[in-house]
Amino acid sequence: MSEFALKTSLPEYLRVEQARIQRFAAEAGLDFFPIVFEILSYDQMNEIAAYGGFPNRYPHWRFGMEYERLAKSYEYGLSKIYEMVINNNPSYAYLLEGNSLVDQKLVMSHVCAHVDFFKNNFCFRSTDLDAGGHTTSPAVRPAGYDPNRRWIDKMANHGSRIRRHVGRIGIGKVEEFIDHCLSLENLIDPHAPFGGRRAQPGPDSDAVATEVPRLRSKDYMESYINPAEFLDQQRRKMEAERDKERKFPARSERDVLGFLLEHAPLERWEHEVLEVIRDEAMYFVPQMQTKIMNEGWATYWHSKLMTEKVLDASEIIDYADNAAGVLASSGGRINPYKLGVELYRNIEERWDRGQFGKQWEDCDSAAEKHHWNQRLGLGKQKIFEVRALYNDVTFIDEFLTPEFAAEQKLFSFDWSKRNERYEIATREFRAVKEKLLAQLTNAGNPLIYVEDANFDNRGELMLRHDHQGVDLRADYAKEVMRSLARVWKRPVCLATVVETKPALTRFDGKEHSSKAYKAG
Amino acid sequence: MSLKIDQDHSRFRQIVRGKIRDNLRKYISQGEMIGRKGKDQVSIPIPHIDIPHFRFADKQQGGAGQGAGDVGESVGGEEGEGEASGKKAGEGAGEHALEVDVTLDELAAILGEELELPDIQNKGKSKLVNEKDRYTGIRRVGPESLRHFRRTYREALKRTISLGGYSADRPMIVPIRDDKRYRAWRTQPEPIANAVIIYMMDVSGSMGDEQKEIVRIESFWLDAWLQRQYKGLESRFIVHDATAREVDRDTFFRTRESGGTMISSAYKLCAQLIDQNYPSGEWNIYPFHFSDGDNWSMDDTLSCIDILKQRILPHANMFAYGQVESPYGSGQFIKDLRDHFPKDDRVVVSEIKDKDAITGSIKEFLGKGR
């Protein structure tokens, strides 16, 4: 490790650049954690990228697979990684050895904005390790905000915890269990860290005392006709009866992994593995929730800093060339860099010109709207506010306008059975926005809840898929059921909808079955 | 430079090899693995391993995209490339094909595992394979007798220093379990014997391109397997119709003759080759003959049997006859061989109906481990 660290320190000329760029960024109002830049050779870069940006992870083949893919595509000149930055305090960012100076400057500017985003966007508050996993009000920050986000250390600790189990019981067994856990890693509640501490049901949570029916009696006969021991006995019996009927969990639980951690009969090592997977999945949640915003923000700032401050005239062509590559949209796919940066610029312009509020909404004249300019100059302030208080879903929901969607040539597509291909379905604003929001919601994952941990009174786990028009992919769902059964160690069921019919699929440890189901 | 990820990478490769195992039959019969690249690398496209999650059925979902095009036009303009263009914004999900390089040696190992081929039993001339254990590395678990004192000490020292417990005045180091390092070894087989494969093929008019393709694929795998078993494997090639001649590999697979079939001519040439070049005391000899089984006459068949008995079988490890099915051949020869060598282990015959039968016939040929 020491050797590694020595070789990666930044050379003098880049350190000078870093100081210069950070000064410009701070002057422009960006507020970031300290940033440590390291310079890596391409195979070190590929390794770290394969580990998701971290120098140390737990042992697992998929990192190797990712490494092979990255290494191959680099060796064949298909793609290379320019920039990588970790949400950590201090933040670590990596530069690729041998990139041109213009590229390195671009990456540094880009990284400054990312780190500003990590520090200021509310979603990332869930990665504050000193919040104990619970942040009640993400928008409110303590003065002198300097959270503990030493995720590099935490991930390395995960690695050594899992390695210890590997040393004890063998890589095969541990890796197989990790595979199962990874199949479940998207079954988490992204909002869990903001929910406050879960209320622990006290001994008398529903305080209604159980009323035991008594036989009617005269006062003086009461203790003979309804003796106290008998009443107590009856009360216990009725309470036991009621407990049996009470559903567990009482309310649908979206944090399936958290639920399994608390209630599945896991061995200690299994518990530890599952915990690691859940913690890491939670770490990556904010990055998935803010892909468009985060990349857009970084692109907005690198282009601003680069063209206004950092570059000299001789470098501008190289820069433009590179920027064009980053912002290109190809194959009809949405490029988050492009959509993000354009939307920020659009917001900035609208708030500079006062194109918002009731007056603007009520205006029917296109000509008037076109020349609308109240010279408010609120744009800068607005985008800083947006970067702190929105995520992709709310960002698109609130700021996507019909004019903007048309300008960006957004469309929605559907699978055409007849032509066996994806076809552009429409460019109508409402439909496009709906599709876009649908694919951003829950990071594109289906909504799955724990419904009953004692289904049919047989200790089976029942999950419910909140079906919103799209079925689950059947073959994958079967595999995931298998993994669930491995963790729960009893049969598992899933209530979903298959081709418009409600269905209950079940895996009993050996076989899959499915039957029609009517939700009670 | 060695990287931390090497371990994960090699595990992935092992899994990929497991994946290939499932698809192996299909690959062989389609002949997809034949292309040799560079020295002895074969490249195989294999799917990316996707960890299953609860996710939406792709085709129902659709999505939002960006770019030019009219309603009803294909997204991204690529016909049939829906999978690629249907990816969600900013997410790399989808199916990637991944090129994996597998060395020929690895391929043969996979083949061997898949078909449960036994390692070849030597016919007693010289020891076939030396296994040698080499200490090649260090690992964290192992028997105490292999404890690597210096490395263990170094780990313990590192830990003590980093915990601040080291004092130069009283340099006491107490290793705990996590500090211990052990020597790790690897068993390496060292093939030492020599072997020769003599391929004979009937190129008479009744052998068509399809039949030859089958022979080509089969001989590739035979080569690969025997190559793994023997150091210094040689291949010789004989084609025959009514007369036989020795050719090089290329010609072997290309020649197309017409005319009749005298199998004995090939066997004679084969016996001659063995006599002249491959004294059976030093060589493991594998004659493989492929034909559609339509010999010229019963007399010739009898003289074939005679040559086999007198001149080939005493020297060879085994004699293999593969009969491919052709619309013209009578397929009589395989029956004759079966009649004359009903109990002889050294003669292996196999009928290869089509490409799918190749794996089966390889197993028949090599399954005895001779």
Structure description:
The complex is a heterodimer of chains A (520) and B (370). In chain A, strand 9 and strand 10 form a beta hairpin. Among the domains of chain A are: 114 residues, no CATH class; 71 residues, no CATH class. The N terminus of chain A is likely disordered. Chain A is an alpha+beta fold and 520 residues long. Chain A is built from 21 helices and ten strands. Chain B is α/β, with parallel strands linked by helices and 370 residues long. Chain B has eleven helices and eleven strands. In chain B, the strands form three sheets. Chain B has a six-stranded mixed sheet, sandwiched between helices. The longest helix of chain B has 25 residues. Chain B starts with 5 loop residues before the first helix and ends with a helix. About 14% of the residues of chain B have low confidence. The chains are: A alpha+beta (520), B alpha/beta (370). The interface between A and B is large, with 82 and 61 residues.
Short description:
The complex is a heterodimer of chains A (520) and B (370). With 520 residues, chain A is an alpha+beta fold.
Oligomeric category? heterodimer
Q: Give the neighbour order of strands across the main sheet of chain B.
A: 8-7-6-9-10-11
Q: What is the radius of gyration of chain A computed over CA atoms, rounded to a whole number of angstroms?
A: 28 Å
Kindly, what is the distance between the CA atoms of the first and last residues of chain A, rounded to a whole number of angstroms? 58 Å
- Report the uncertain regions of chain A: 1-6
List the secondary-structure elements of chain B in sequence, H or E: HEHEHEHEHEEHEEHHEHEHEH
| Count of discrete alpha- or pi-helical segments spanning 4 or more residues of chain A | 21
Percent of residues in beta strands of chain B: 15-25%
Tell me which CATH architecture of the largest domain in chain B applies here: 3-Layer(aba) Sandwich
Can you summarize the main beta sheet of chain B? 6 strands, mixed
